[in-house]
Structure formats: structure tokens, C-alpha cells
Specification:
There is one protein chain. The protein has helices at 48-51, 99-117, 190-202, 263-279; strands at 9-11, 25-30, 33-39, 42-47, 55-67, 70-80, 86-88, 129-130, 137-138, 145-146, 151-160, 163-169, 180-183, 205-217, 222-233, 243-249, 288-296, 306-314, 317-318, 321-322, 330-336. The chain is mainly beta. It folds into three domains: 9-117, Nucleoside Triphosphate Pyrophosphohydrolase (Alpha-Beta Complex), CATH 3.90.79; 151-279, Nucleoside Triphosphate Pyrophosphohydrolase, CATH 3.90.79.10; 282-364, no CATH class. The strands form five sheets. Strands 1, 2, 3, 4, 5, 6 and 7 form a seven-stranded mixed β-sheet that branches. Strands 11, 12, 13, 14, 15 and 16 form a six-stranded mixed β-sheet that branches. The protein is globular, with a radius of gyration of 24 Å.
Length: 364
Amino acid sequence: MWPHDPDEFLPSHIEPDDADHGDAWYFVFHRGELIIKSVQGVPEPTTADDFRWFDMETSSKHFLGHYGDRPCFALSASGQLTEGFQTTALRGLLGRTSASLFYLAGRAQQVIEWHETHQFCGRCGIPMEDHPNDRAKQCPKCRLINYPRLSPSIIVLVTKGDEMLLARNVGWPNGMYSTLAGFVEAGESIEQTVHREVFEEVGIRVTNLEYFGSQSWPFPNSLMLGFHAEYAGGDIVCQADEIADAQWFKPDGLPQTPPRTAISGWLIEEWNRRGKNAQQGKRPDDVAAAAKIRVHKGIDRALPAAEYVQCALLICKEQGQFRLRTSRILIAAIKPLHSPRPDMSIQETRLPIEPYTQIQLAYL
């Protein structure tokens, strides 16, 4: 579920002349839910051909871009649902369809919600117009511009030794716990938000923040920024109007937690996996390998002038994937000189690093 890399979707707000053909995907929202059909048991959006048979009236329609060669549109419609189709809340797609399709449906819902809530200028009150160059609304009188709303939020798993801190929000069912989360306030950095939210919700201090990844969370328009953090001090004091309970849990005694399709579940699972690897004696230096790396001084393309940099790599292959972390210059190829164990290898990849430095790859 984690879009670390670009997928097949290419966004655009400008609709080409030939985009609205029969195979185009229509993400149609009816009373706040997405209309879907089942294709071999897997939910998919309707197509333009499907929608032509619907007895529905379209209140707004927005070109989103292309998924591969397929144009995509977001629609808000009312009327009667055609037999063979059904509606579902976006949460109902989690784990049932591809990550790309879920995030695309979330994009469609957020564009519709933004369009419906920005019909009039918030400064002078007159009707807004579509911006000619961006996906935005512009006031023709005072020139105020409104872009689709995004609400950055942090979500953090706090750990202490072999324990993790999980909390249950007020209003959640008994037994359901998750990581701590909260919205970024004006003037804050993301890291400051982590410290503030943890202290506000459970009264403890944290240290050693590690950014782990993000997730678009269209409920209604959050961008969740995930962290691991270590306990630094304090006693648990739950925020009365928000946190019903918070406790330290060991990996073998976890309560009910969100699935891995939510970033909270991913943070928990990844930390548990690190702990299991540590127990099995797997360390980064156990899988060190020397490599010769061809470094091109460019970001998006290889340049004629290149140089070779000798680096030590720390790489672990887990479930067929490699986790690599560094910054800035494009690596065109990695050629292994040797592998310390038969099951450890270096794949050809594009890896950003700084020249003449030792690469430290996060072992997960």
C-alpha cells in the first residue's frame, strides 16, 4: 500500500480532446460513496460506457489524468443506481484493490469535495472560477486562489526497549488500539508536531525521531507522515477528551490494531520485523558487500562524463525487495564484486547518493 515510487498514474487538470471515450474510468460518487462493479471479485470503477446506461444526473465532472493509457475522471452524480453496480465507502476498498487504484479513488473524492466546498470566494463572496493553469479556484474580483485542501498529519509509533506505546481514542470500540496521531499546526515543523502531539495526548517526551513514510488518507483530506520515535521520559497521562487509554505492549501481547493497509499498522509491523531480525542475530555488518558504482552527475538522465566511486554497501534482501536510503546524485548501475552469503545479492538499481561517501543503507 505504500507509494514510495511513481505508479502508472500521470495527473493533469487539462482534459485532452479525445480523453472522454468509452474505456475511460469514471470515479462516480453518489451520496458520498463510490460506485463500483466487481470484475472477478475485485472492485473496479465504472467506465464511461457503463455510465451512459445510468439514470443519473452529473453535478460536477473533473478530469484527473491518465492511468497508463486510460483517461480518468471524477464525477459527483445523483439518481438511480443501475443493476449490477453498487456503492462503497472508500474504506471498503482498503485491501480489496490495488494500492494505485485506492489512492486514485481517494484523489477523485478529494477533488470533488474541494470543488463542492469552494464554490464562492471566502474573501468577497462572489462565485469562483476555475484557474486557467492549475487545478485551483480563482476569484475573478479579488483574485484569491484556492487549491485542493491537504491536511498534513503526523502518526508515530513510540517504543521503549522491546515495548511499544499504543492508545485507544475516545469513541473507539473496546480492544482497538493504534499509534498516536495529530494534525500539523501553523508555524510548526513536522518534527515539532510529533513532540507536541505525543506530549499532549499521553504526557511523555520522545527522542530519536525517524521518518518512515507517508500515506494519502482521504478521510477526508489528510496526508499522514509516519515516524518511529523512542521514549525519553515521563509518565503516561491520557488527554481526557481524546485518549481513553494508553499502554505499553510487547510484540507477543498486542491488542487489536489496524491492518497493514493503514500506515499505523505498517509502522507496527515494520518495528516488529526489526525486532525479529535482531533476535535472529541479523545485523547490517553481517551482509556488507563491496561494490563498484558508476555515478552520473545528473538527476534524470545519464551524462557522458562519469566516474567510479568505491563504496561499502549495507544491503539486506527481504521478501525480494531492497530498502535503500541516501540522497541526491543518480546511480546508473551497481555491480557487485562479491557477496558474503549466497542468499545476499545486489540488484541493478537506481540509487541516489553523494559521491565519495560511504553509503549507509537502512537495514529493515
